[in-house]
Design goal:
By secondary structure, the chain is an alpha/beta fold. Helices cover about 30% and strands about 25% of the residues. Strand 8 and strand 9 form a beta hairpin.
């Protein structure tokens, strides 16, 4: 895989942190932006990313393969070849060239309490049937997005699904992933118990 440079807005959000981690693991250089004051959790995640030699805060004097933002909250950087917006719901009015639509996600540092995850402004119980059918772990989702960002970029919109609910059609924009949600949640509940202070 060729070395590339990416600019990521909301880099210390839960979703942004995991995307930056995936890009760094793939050997890319990442510049991170965060517009608002950091929460305790975001400060904690910023320290993880700040230790990586390929991560820098702020826009650097370089050309970026893409400027990636979450939920349509950032204007395109003039230094990037393209702007990719990552959201939970489609936005047909978006002026972004590319959109990546996320499913319900779960993983370390997710917004949650003991019984539920916060998703797209809603509280959803971990034992909810919809959650069990549709939720995907954030790490493989962001690893896949890292590959998409560094690829040829021939499609304008991608959607993620669990294998159980993926549309049965030959649609290259539909990405289906497998997971073991019970084992995943068991590990995540242990992580939450250990690092509860940073979740709150």
């Amino acid at each position: 895989m060729n070395f590339m440079r990416f600019l990521v807005s909301q880099c210390y959000s839960w979703e942004g942190y995991h995307l930056v981690q995936a890009l760094l693991e793939d050997g890319h250089e990442v510049s991170g932006l965060q517009e608002q004051t950091l929460s305790d959790r975001e400060t904690h995640l910023s320290m993880y990313l700040g230790r990586h030699a390929m991560f820098r805060e702020g826009v650097q004097d370089t050309d970026y393969k893409a400027h990636v933002s979450f939920f349509g909250t950032a204007e395109r950087s003039a230094e990037s070849q393209q702007h990719v917006d990552i959201s939970y719901a489609t936005d047909d009015t978006s002026e972004q060239e590319k959109q990546i639509l996320l499913p319900i996600l779960y993983g370390e540092w997710m917004p949650r309490d003991e019984e539920a995850v916060e998703w797209n402004g809603k509280r959803m119980l971990f034992d909810d049937d919809y959650f069990h059918r549709n939720a995907l772990p954030i790490k493989p989702v962001m690893q896949t997005i890292s590959k998409l960002l560094s690829g040829d970029g021939s499609l304008d919109k991608y959607r993620f699904y669990t294998k159980e609910v993926c549309p049965e059609q030959e649609d290259r924009a539909a990405i289906a992933l497998t997971r073991n949600i019970r084992n995943d949640l068991s590990a995540l509940h242990k992580h939450y118990a250990q690092f509860r202070f940073f979740y709150e």
